[in-house]
Amino acid sequence: MSILGSVQFIFKEGFYRFRHSRGLSWAVIGIITASLIQMAIVLGLMLFLNQVIQSAQAKFNWTIFLKPHTTTQDMTQLKKILEYYPFIARVKLLTKQQALKDMERDQAIQQMVQALGQNPLLNSFSVLFTPAATSQNLKHLSGQLQTIACISTINYGPKQFNLFSKIIRWVYGIGIVLEIIVFFAALTVMSNAFNLVLQVRKPELQLLHRLGAPAWMKWGPYFWEGIIQGILGSALVLILLNLIQNGVFWFSSSVIFPTNFDIPTFPWRLLDMMIVGIGCLLGVLGIVLALRQKWIKEFL
Amino acid sequence: MTIQFFHVSRQASNGVKILDNICLSIKTGSWIEIKGVNQVGKTSLLKMIACEDTADSGTLKMDQQLFENMDRKQLRIWKSQIGLVFQDIGFFPDKSVLDNLMTPFLIQKNGGGIFREQLNRALERVHLREKMYMPMRDLSFSEQRLVVFLRALFPKRQILLLDDPFQGIEMHTIEVLQSILAEQHHQGVTIVGTVLDDTVFQNPHVTSETIEWFELTSSQIQMIGGNPT
């Protein structure tokens, strides 16, 4: 039999076995679907947080403090440079007099300024970014600004942003650990379900062995069956994700985040691909683990 | 391909001797029938040739090669060269008659050709052609036995091991099967069978000159008829 004939046999047998053990096949698909839903939630949360962190980074203003002796000409030139970047939405100059005026409402600061006898504040630019600003853009801009002589320091945003980033990083780490745990738990359950499938089909395996069938004829169809179940389990999750996606679009655009967060740019396609990949991997690894049992090895 | 038993003994798990110091030589192209009552060890003998059972003592050789020294691949090839009709050999119940019959063709990497034509003719002769696409579970017991028999016959193997093969099969169908067996024997296939009695062989296709008759009694085997030359 040619390679094509062998592949044809594996495909045909895989589908045949899948069709003829409907109950068990759907039980396995159910396990894959349930596991993938759990994994999709964690994966989705991680990808969402990734988006949020990028989006939030762009939402917090940057404050660029200028050196004390910066001339008006330098300030105008710097403003022009900043406005040149397409991802910068607004550049606003805040003179030290204006800043002082804003602070004068606070009595303690008023007393401090009176004691110093002069305005200790610096002129600064407040920079607001567009939603198109990415973390790479901002990193690049930050590097460029460091080289300009009249700039004293750049405040990348309020302290809350750093705290926010730290929390997200923790959630990210926990997410990865959870993902690994769910994956292995699913794999164990899958392999046990496949064990059951193989036990039911023991007489068929035994017969093939007695007829002198080569090993690939025995494990090949199960391998393919695992992939089919993985694909079908993933497909169910994808349908569910699609429904959620549409719901989230509607909900986010009309109720929660009308302008601030970029939910439409959430990487749904990446999540879909990851789900299909993990689903197939679960199917194949599940059957590989099940086929490693001692009693089956005798027949292979 | 000569199969030789040298002083082979086999004991059941309860300690009862099934075979005791059996010496037997099966030459290529011979047709051997082993007659004997139930529980005398006929099936054990065949299972040893099929490498499904092992001897407690003594040796089994195939063309001077010891069975126990065969590796997995050699064993698999050996098994694929044997047509089995055992009482406990099964079939794929959910698959069609045709799929069941085609399994050995797939194993032997044999697309069909002349053997497929012979199989079609045989199916017609035993009136199974119209049931080719029916699942095996929908067939009667005798029809299922018949399919198992045909699966052992096609494509052509080097050895046929037939353990009480005509059990549950109608007399006129037995005659057809015996004529197919005689054809295959004529083509050089070695046949080793077991029967409770020799009445089923009393038909024009199979004569006493064709078959070497052995009787297995009290764990011992002895020739009782035929022409061993």
Main traits of this protein?
heterodimer, A: about 300 residues, alpha+beta, Alpha-Beta Plaits, 2 domains, four-stranded antiparallel sheet, about 75% helix, about 10% strand, B: about 230 residues, Rossmann fold
Could you describe the 3D structure shown?
The complex is a heterodimer of chains A (300) and B (229). With 300 residues, chain A is of the alpha+beta class. Chain A is 73% helix and 8% strand. Chain A folds into two domains: 3-56 and 163-297, no CATH class; 61-157, Alpha-Beta Plaits (2-Layer Sandwich), CATH 3.30.70. Chain A is built from eleven helices and four strands, in the order H-H-E-H-E-H-H-E-H-E-H-H-H-H-H. In chain A, strands 2-3-1-4 form a four-stranded antiparallel sheet. In chain A, helix 2 (22-59) packs antiparallel against helix 10. Chain A is rod-shaped. The mean pLDDT of chain A is 81. Chain B is α/β, with parallel strands linked by helices and 229 residues long. Chain B has one domain: P-loop containing nucleotide triphosphate hydrolases (Rossmann fold, 3-Layer(aba) Sandwich), CATH 3.40.50.300. Helices cover 31% and strands 26% of the residues of chain B. Chain B has helices at 42-49, 72-80, 97-107, 113-125, 141-153, 171-186, and strands at 3-11, 17-26, 31-35, 57-62, 65-66, 82-85, 159-163, 190-195, 212-217, 220-225. In chain B, strand 4 and strand 5 (65-66) form a beta hairpin. The mean pLDDT of chain B is 83.
SSE order and pairing:
The complex is a heterodimer of chains A (300) and B (229).
Chain A: H1 3-20, H2 22-59, E1 62-66, H3 72-84, E2 88-94, H4 96-103, H5 107-116, E3 124-129, H6 135-146, E4 151-155, H7 159-200, H8 202-210, H9 215-256, H10 268-291, H11 294-297
Helix pairs in contact in A: 1-9, 2-7, 2-9, 2-10, 7-10, 9-10
Chain B: E1 3-11, E2 17-26, E3 31-35, H1 42-49, E4 57-62, E5 65-66, H2 72-80, E6 82-85, H3 97-107, H4 113-125, H5 141-153, E7 159-163, H6 171-186, E8 190-195, E9 212-217, E10 220-225
Parallel strand pairs in B: 3-8, 3-9, 6-7, 7-8
Antiparallel strand pairs in B: 1-2, 1-4, 4-5, 9-10
Helix pairs in contact in B: 3-5
